[in-house]
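Whiteboard transcription, Tuesday session. T.W. wrote the structure tokens on the left side:
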């Protein structure tokens, strides 16, 4: 059926060419947007219905049409709004009116005319001239039913945007959120920087990287799994506050809150600690919500959650006891902790160490219960090879994870700046990798050398932008806030 429609539209494009009209012209005249024309009409006096002295030229995609004998009404949409176009047979030349039958839903047209409002008060442009500026060879989604197949909506996001104003607004809000983050950090004297996406070592996180080969160098390269180590190099170089919003790639699985390609904010400030970063996070997210959403509360399920500071603060150990009735101090070895988790029927990963088991316990017993914004503080050193130890308690580090709506939103450290301790922890990670753990922090000699030149005490932060948008907008699946999420390729023999 679609092929038949395409063929019909191709014939109409050919007819336009035969009549001397290019259905894909290079130049377009536009004097006003739809929104601007609507603003002009809004200023009409009470008894005014038209302004023939003001000529406008507007463009947009045809989304609806209605014919009434000697008059036709089209609705067009541009990037600002929707507006009605009136074509009258006695106003247009005969050919121009009759050739309206060459237009289809989805076509882009340019219209010259004057602003008016109908007897029902609808903002309208009465056409004096029109032309096709892009002939659509395939029809748009049917407006009232849209795209019901969720995967198809995500694969063909352009159609999703055409069919749904809600989807279009969602991504406009995403853009506003990232813009508000940039504004906030720049007002705090952070400078925005860019760091390499292709890296000789995949460092800064415990994750499995994507690999590629640099032909010119004849060397393996990795798509970055974190922004951290290069941003720290800039702190070492003398910048005191830096941030980057960039793509991160982790060769891992999919879920409603995980995607292998995602957007991350990382920010680093010299002469601060993880507690200073916590204050920044709660203020920044509250400020962003107020600016973008106009409120400091969000809806999570049936619960209205306030983002106003101060957020809850609790240590990881206390949280396990409070929410999971699990006293971590009773299990000081890997095997005793593993057995305790088995007793609670918590699945264990195939390969694990003490730190990983603590993470498993926290994910199962605590994380789903952290609906209100909460900072979970002070993690085992095994889980955090890049964070500073807590003075007087070398088994724990100055680290927090921020949780909201039962999922991790942010991760922050007092950054480890002792190159001797850092090297020792990297060496420990090498041992874990040799034992078969693919998600460990790799030893980066260049970073260690940079650290040996001296890095001031520094607080570092990572926030997943996709998750932040998901939570602020009340979505449930991370794919709904990513323009083009990853999908398995469809073979020619597969159906959608």
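and on the right, the sequence the group agreed on:
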């Amino acid at each position: 059926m679609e092929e038949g429609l395409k063929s019909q539209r191709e014939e109409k494009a050919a007819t336009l060419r035969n009549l001397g009209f290019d259905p894909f012209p290079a130049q377009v005249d536009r004097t006003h947007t739809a929104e601007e024309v609507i603003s002009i009409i809004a200023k009409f006096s009470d008894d005014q219905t038209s302004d023939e002295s003001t000529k406008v030229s507007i463009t947009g995609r045809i989304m609806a049409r209605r014919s009434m004998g000697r008059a036709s009404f089209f609705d067009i949409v541009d990037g600002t709004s929707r507006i009605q176009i009136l074509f009258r047979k006695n106003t247009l030349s005969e050919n121009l009116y009759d050739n309206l039958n060459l237009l289809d839903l989805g076509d882009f047209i340019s219209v010259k005319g004057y602003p008016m409002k109908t007897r029902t008060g609808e903002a309208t442009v009465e056409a004096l001239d029109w032309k096709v500026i892009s002939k659509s060879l395939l029809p748009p989604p049917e407006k009232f039913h849209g795209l019901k197949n969720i995967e198809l909506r995500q694969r063909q996001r352009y159609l999703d945007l055409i069919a749904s104003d809600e989807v279009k607004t969602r991504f406009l809000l995403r853009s506003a959120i990232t813009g508000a983050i940039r504004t906030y950090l720049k007002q705090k004297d952070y400078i925005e920087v860019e760091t390499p996406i292709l890296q000789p070592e995949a460092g800064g996180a415990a994750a499995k990287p994507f690999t590629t080969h640099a032909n010119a160098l004849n060397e393996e390269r990795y798509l970055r799994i974190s922004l951290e180590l290069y941003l720290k190099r800039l702190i070492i170089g003398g910048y005191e506050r830096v941030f980057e919003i960039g793509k991160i790639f982790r060769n891992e699985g999919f879920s409603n809150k995980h995607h292998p390609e995602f957007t991350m904010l990382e920010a680093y400030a010299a002469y601060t600690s993880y507690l200073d970063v916590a204050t920044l996070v709660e203020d920044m997210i509250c400020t962003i919500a107020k600016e973008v959403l106009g409120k400091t509360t969000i809806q999570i399920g049936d619960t209205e959650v306030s983002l106003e500071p101060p957020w809850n603060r609790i240590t990881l150990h206390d949280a396990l006891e409070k929410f999971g009735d699990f006293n971590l101090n009773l299990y000081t070895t890997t095997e005793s902790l593993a057995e305790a988790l088995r007793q609670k029927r918590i699945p264990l990963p195939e390969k694990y160490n003490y730190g990983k088991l603590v993470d498993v316990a926290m994910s199962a017993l605590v994380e789903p219960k952290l609906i209100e914004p909460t900072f979970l503080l002070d993690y085992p050193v095994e889980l955090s090879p890049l964070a500073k130890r807590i003075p007087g308690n070398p088994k724990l580090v100055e680290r927090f994870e921020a949780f909201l709506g039962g999922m991790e939103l942010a991760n922050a450290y007092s950054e480890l700046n002792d190159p001797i301790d850092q090297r020792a922890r990297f060496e420990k990670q090498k041992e874990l990798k040799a034992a078969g753990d693919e998600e460990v922090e790799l030893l980066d000699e260049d970073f260690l050398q940079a650290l040996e030149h001296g890095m001031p005490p520094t607080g570092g932060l990572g926030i997943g932008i996709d998750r932040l948008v998901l939570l602020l907008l009340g979505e449930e699946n991370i794919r709904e806030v990513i323009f083009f999420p990853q999908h398995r390729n469809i073979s020619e023999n597969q159906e959608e």
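Someone added at the bottom: Residues 128 and 155 are 40 Å apart (CA to CA).
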